[in-house]
Every structure is written in structure tokens, then in C-alpha cells.
Amino acid sequence: MPVPTHRRGRYWLIVISTIAIGLAYGLYGLPLAPVVLLVACSVEGRIAAVGRSVLDGLLADATPPGLQGRVQANFATATAAGRLMGSVGAGLLYLLRPGVPFIVGGAICALTGLALLLPSLARLFVVTPPTDTPSPQR
After folding, report:
1. What is d(CA 65, CA 105) in angstroms, rounded to the nearest whole number?
2. How far lies 132's CA from each of 11, 67, 96, 115, 129, in Å?
3. How many domains is the chain built from?
4. Is residue 135 part of a domain?
5. Is residue 1 included in any domain, yes or no?
6. Is the dihedral of CA 85, 49, 16, 59 positive or negative?
7. What pTM was computed for the model?
8. Which of 16, 51, 100, 134 lies at a 20 to 30 A Cα distance from 42?
9. What mean pLDDT comes out for the span 8-24?
10. Average pLDDT of span 105-123
11. Which residues form the Major facilitator superfamily (MFS) profile domain (predicted)?
């Protein structure tokens, strides 16, 4: 199934996927039936796959030619550092109660998605095509 980024742009899919991942991730901390958790896990994984690929495409579009490799490497490094810090923080929150890391992590993710709705942040993600390169001949 193609992702309709050509109509509304990639930004909105990033916002929607971030909020949806936060909501699905928060379900893991609640005492729910195993079937519900499996469905939430499946939905979260699919949304994360779409959101990550859309974000990679946005990064590639927003980066000047010749710098895409460096930008993707920096993004991967920042992602790995965030996962490391998140794991340590989740381990500390787990000491309070086993479900707390999931609820806090889901809330952080959902609030980040809501913060991306602010107009000042939305302007940062607008990608304009370069004007100095000629358009391809058809």
C-alpha cells in the first residue's frame, strides 16, 4: 500500500505516526488482555516502519546534495544515543512499578507529536525544492 505523501507532504505522516506510536506504546503499561497487547504491538510496528521511512525521506529531501550520508549517520547516532538514554531511564522507572516506563515513554512520544503541531516547529520541516537545478526533461 503506497503512503500518500505526495498529497499532504511527509510532515503530517511524521506527526500522526509519532502520536499513534505514543498511544500504542502507552498501552503496554496497562493491564490488558494478551490479544490486545499483540494487536497494539503489531500496529505500533507498522506505524513505526512507515514513520521512520517517511522521516528518512524528509531528511534526504531537506539535505543538500553530497551531505545526505553525513546527515543520515548523525541521525542514526542521535537515535542510538536516545535509545541508550531511554533504556537507562526506563530501567530506573521500572524500579518504581513495571508499567510506568511504558506509560511515561508513550506520553513523551505522544506529547512530542503534539508539539510538532505548533506552527513554529512545523515551519522547520517545510522542504522547498532547490531553484538552481533544472527540472528533468520529459
Report:
1. 35
2. 24, 17, 56, 33, 9
3. 1
4. no
5. no
6. positive
7. 0.74
8. 100
9. 86
10. 85
11. 1-138
Residue indicated by cell numbers 490488558: 32
Q: Is residue 138 over pLDDT 60?
A: no
Q: Give start and end residues of each alpha helix (H) in the chain.
A: 5-8, 10-27, 34-62, 68-96, 100-115, 119-122
Cell output for 109: 512520544
Residue 60 located in a structural domain: yes
Percent of the chain topping pLDDT 90: 30
Q: How is residue 68 written as a grid cell?
A: 545526505
Q: What is the CA radius of gyration of the chain?
A: 18
In whole angstroms, give the CA distance from residue 81 to residue 96.
Answer: 24
Alpha-carbon distance 74 to 55, whole Å? Answer: 14
| Domain range for 54 | 9-120
Cell numbers describing residue 40: 497494539
Rounded-to-10 torsion of CA 133, 135, 137, 138: 160
Type of residue at 97: R
Q: Cell digits for 94? A: 521500572
Structure-block grid coordinates of residue 116: 510538532
Q: Is the pLDDT of residue 1 over 50?
A: no
